[in-house]
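Action item from last week, closing it out:
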Amino acid sequence: MSEHSLFSPSASHRTLNCPPSLMLCAAQPDGTSTYAEEGTCAHELCAYLVEKSLGRHVRDPTANLAYYDAEMQSCAEGYTDYVLESYNQAKISCPDARVFVEQRVDISRWVPGCGGTADCIIVADGTLTVIDYKHGVGVPVSAESEEFGGNPQLMCYCLGALEMFDGIYNIDTVKMAIYQPRRENVSEHTMSKDNLLQWADAVLAPTAKQALEGKGEFKAGEHCRFCKIKATCRERAEQNMAAAKYDFQPPAELSDEEIDDILLKTDRLTEWASDVKEYALTQALQGKDFEHFKVVEGRSVRKYTSEADAADAVKAAGYDPYEKKLLGITAMTSLLGKKKFQEILGDLTFKPQGKPTLVQKSDKRPAWKNTAEEDFNM
């Protein structure tokens, strides 16, 4: 890549939906969070375990991972199993299939200077597979997209992988996969190489050019989640404030159509209000004076100055300061190992039915079954 591009595959979903956001976000300082740092640690662990499982000589990073724990280990092991399963499947039809971990790819053919790092690429005759690990637990990430067919980030990685391997391997199909263990989410999407290249020429290249020039129309939506200006964006504010047209009428006075419309906006409205409040708190802590709001000390709870000293004092008084609790599923699996866990506790575990929750019909989960009603009708 001859020059660095502000356009990033990881932010492509937002940029392609709202081109002007690219340059506005670029003008804002970069920040980090414990969630991002935890995700970085998880990716490093995933890469290590995959490379190790492939018989490659790699350094164990666990001692230097600030957020390493039993859950992260379990998640990374599950990801490794998924990668190896996909690799073995590819080798059935293509014995010389290869796996590339944390592979840098270049898509400057469509976006000058742009590239990214794919978590895992499995290249074989017939199908090229790109697998992306997501450690986040906030929202499930899909390999599909209503706007673009596939997940734009993975589509960009697939384009970069094609630039490297198309011609060396006879590729006609690309497969995108999201592995998100903490949401029990594995999402896959397949499309033809021709359709991917058509998208790159017709959508990616012209929209990226528009974004890099600071042009295009603002558009608010789910892609605002990681936008740096989400709290102050006027387009997002106007879209959310449109919900006020109902004047907060009691639900009984609203029609079914109006309730359906409100439900479509509720989650985004709540998220937007939270973003604005968080932004205002940050500004107030930096000295901004809002007319009707001030910063106060929030509620806190008492803590021991030293847990060890507290335990010693209670034991000296003749009491047991500790409570005994059965290890949770994740910790117990780590203690016993997956195989042993299944042998010992396989028949002693179950997954209860989750609580009913209202979601849009585009959600892939099956519709709720009212078991009480079914039992009554039997």
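Closing note: Residues 230-285 form one domain.
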